[in-house]
Structures are given as structure tokens and as C-alpha cells.
Amino acid sequence: MRIAEAVESGQLTSTDSSSGANSFGDKANQVQSSYRRGYVEYLIFTLCASLYLLPFMRILLEATDEGTLINGAVRIVHGQVFARDFLEAMGPGTFFWLGAFFKLFGVTFIATRICLFITSLGTGLLVYFLSRRVCPRYQQLPCIILVGTYFSVLWPTISHHVDSNFFALASVACMVLWRQRRSGILLIAAGMLAGVTTSVHQPKGGLLLVAILLWLWMRRQKGAAPMAALGLVTAGYCGVIGIVLLYFLSRGALRDLVYVTIVWPYGHYGPTNVVPYAQGLAIYWDRLVAKSGFNWSTGMASVLITPFLFVAALPVLLPILAARSKWNAMRPEVALYWLCGWALWLSEIHRKDIWHLVFGSPLLIIVGVYLLMERREKVADLALQLLLISAGCLACFNLFLALTAHPLTTRVGTVAVFKDDPVLTFLDEHVAPGEEIFAYPYCPMYYFLSSTVNPTHYSILFYNYNISSQFEEVVRTLEQHRVKYVIWDTGFEARAASTFFPEAKRTNPHDYILEPYLESHYRVVKAVNGIRIMERKSEGHPDYK
């Protein structure tokens, strides 16, 4: 621009202008070539990522939070209101996000996978975009680590963790673009995306907003950001939160929303989810490797688990790697990733198992790779190469496992499972679509796959997690609705106590509320692997009470 202006004003002679124009043209050609190369690289990444993700999209993992989220989205499509008509510990965002796909594509399994594919591919693209800014030599490595460690009980499933990361990373990407383009719209978009993140995962969105504002304040101290930038981000955030609150106020459910998302989790969700740090590493070693049937050697097992060890070590590893770097000398993008990365990590630390650590670490993984690159030492480069090899092997291993799943036809479409489910077969044969059933203590996926209805407000009912009045409410509902079939997983509490809720107190059988009702009002018609399929007794039955 300056060369062109100088030519127009006559400040350059014809010779000077000619040489300047040539120089300008060369630079313009270089920039255009760089842009074209960047677009091609993004296109190749998108194609490769899509081909990798598609086999995972067919998989169904039943014993996950996905059933809760899908069932809640179906309820919203049918006119129910979150917190007023059904109670879940997650924020309302994922229910509405998935509900939009149900509106567009129908209440089918393929609709859930379109939603999951968009968030998964979007997350991959965002991590790739963010890592390219600071990791030129290993720009794909954070993506490979993330996709390798994502595969677990939390992915490939509809999950508030998956969705919140997608929106949070999009918010950070807007801030990176703002630093380059200085557009106020990007600041508003960053705030709005942080607000959407809050609606999906309350702590994650709130901490993300604080991290972004802190980064902007630090940039302002250096004269690199105006005070208005903080206001625009805050305005975007408050706009989304205001819309959410107004919606629930208009539905008469604002008090219920506060109770479900703040009051109830504070007293019940947190204490139940206390687990040892990085719990689950042994499960990967034992189940995915030692007992996988592939007879991997200890050396191969060590390679596969290395990315998980890297993620678990990040809280210690990053301060050590950054100890030699001065904060003032840190690149602005890295400082942003550092602050927002710890915000995401802290939002997931309420449950410290390896799966939540993975979902809290996408930005910290980028920072870790960047800091290892900056060491410029042979040992650091060897560590990066080891990470690349191990993460690539893990990603390939996960893909191989995904390809072993076999198809199963359900009322909502064909899904891929690792083992057949006789309970679902029974429901398809004996229960009509739209009929009410109750799955206890936890398997809400049955409602979706069998196109049946949960008459209660709860997808999970677990002692010391739910309160006594909620158990009593369920008993009243079963009695009033005369629900014909109950699916009772009698082994859930024992499995949950050892795997999911090790710190939760075991309930004395004398304090049971629902169990005596089920045993007196229902009879077992089929039992499969500790799951009882129970049918309601007729009132004339001799054992009916």
C-alpha cells in the first residue's frame, strides 16, 4: 500500500516506481502462494480427518452419558423443558444443540452422528489451526495426540465435553484472528462462543471468559489492546447468557435451571465424583492392551499408553518446560493458549480421571509441544518423535478396534456395537414404540434405541447421588403411570462403586426405597448378565402389594 501511494503522489521516479512495483508484486505473489498453499493444506487435513473419523461415527457405546443427552434432546424436540420436565447435571446447551439436528434430520441415529461428526471434525480443524500458529514443525502432532486419547467412554459419543471443547476452541480461534485482523466482530463472536460454552459446560465457559479477559488486560498493559476489547467480549458473552436466562424465564423454569445447574450439583455431583488422579490408565493397560486378545508385548503396550502419560503429566511438565522462558518474552498466542488452556483444564478437574484430563487438555497439549520445540535440544526432539510415533500407533489401534464393531438394526437406524444386547432385542419384541418403560439405575440409551419413553424426570437414579425425595417421586410415577416394564441393572452399583464412584458411600439395604417397590410390584421375566427385565404384576397377583 505504501509503495502504491508513493507512486500515485509522485514521490517515486519512474525507475524507482518500477523497481518498487516489481518488489511489491513479488511479495504479493508470495503472499498469494502462501494462502493457496494454506488452503490446500487445510483441505488435505479435512479430507484425511474425515476419512479417519467416519468409521467411528457408526459406533454405539451404551453405558455412557450419551444416552442421557440424546434422551434429553428427544424430550426437548417433543416440547419438554430442561430442568422443569427433566433433571440432569449437565448444562442445557448440548440438549438444544442436538435437538436442532433432530429437528432437521428426524429423531434417528444418523442425526446424532451428523452432530457428532461436525463437532469432532470442527475440534480437529480448530486444534490444527491453533497449533499451526506456534508449532510449524509438529503442527499435526497435537491433533494426533488428541484424536488418539479421545477414544474412550466419552468419545465417539454425544457428549457435553466434546461440544464444550468445540465451542471453547472456536472462541480461542476468534481471539487469535482478532489479534491479526483487529475486527470487533471477532471479539463479540469470541464472547458469544464462550457464552455457548457456558450453556454446555458451566465451569468451562466461565473460566474461559476470565482467561480471555485476563489476556486482553495483559495486552492492554503493553498497549496492544484497547479497553473496548474487554467490553466487546463481555457484551457477547452476556448476550448469550441473557438469551438463555430469558428463555427459561419465559417457560417458567428459571428457578429450576438455577437448582439443576448450581444448587443440586454443588451438594451432590462433586462429592460423588471424587476419584484418584488419572484413574483409568490401568483400565487402558488392562482392557485395551493386556486383555485385548492381540497379545501385545509390554513394549508395544508402553508405546500405546505414552500419550495418556503425557496428558497426565502436563500439570507438572509444562511449568518445568516453561521455567527457562520469561513470561514477558512469551509469544502472545502462546500466552493466550496458556491461560485458556489452564481454564479448560481446571473446568474438568472436578473429576480427575484420565478421560476428563484428556478433555481438559487440548490447548495444554499444543503448549507442551511448543515448549518442547523451543528447547532445541536433542532429548526434546526425541521426545517429540516418540510422542508422534506413539500417538500415531494409538490412533491406528483405535481405528482397528472401531472396524471390529458389527452392525445392529434398531428402531432408530443401524448402529455398530461390539456385542449384542438381548435386553434391546426383548424390548423390540415386547414393547411398542412410544410406550413407557423405566431403566434403573442407569441405561437411558434403551429409551432412544427402542423409541420408548421415560416417564420420570431422571435418566440416572443412584443412592448418594440422587436424594431420597427423588427416589420417592419415581415410585409415585411408576405407580401412577402403571409402567409395564422396568429394566433393572442389579450390578450397576457394584460396578459404579469400583470404577466410576469409588468414593461414594454404599447404601445400607435397609435404606433402599425403590428396590422393595420393584420386588413387590414387578416380576422377573428375563435376566441377562445381572440385568433383570421386569414386568408389572396384575393387581390380582398373589404377590402384588
How would you explain this protein's 3D organization?
With 545 residues, the protein is mainly α. The protein is 66% helix and 6% strand. The strands form two sheets. A four-stranded mixed β-sheet has the order 3-4-6-5. Strands 1-2 form a two-stranded antiparallel ribbon. Strand 5 and strand 6 (531-536) form a beta hairpin. Helix 9 (202-221) runs antiparallel to helix 10. Mean pLDDT is 88; it is low at 1-18.
The number of domains = 3
Order of helices and strands: HHHHHHHHHHHHHHHHHEEHEHHEHHEE
| Sheet having the most strands | 4 strands, mixed
Report the uncertain regions.
1-18
Secondary structure: number of strands? 6
Oligomerization status of the protein chains: single chain
| Overall pLDDT | 88
The portion of residues forming beta strands comes to 5-15%
- In angstroms, what is the radius of gyration? 27 Å
Give the overall shape. globular
Distance N to C terminus: 88 Å
Class from secondary-structure proportions: mainly alpha
How many DSSP H or I helices? 22
The main sheet orders its strands as 3-4-6-5
Instruction: Tell me the helix content.
Output: 55-70%
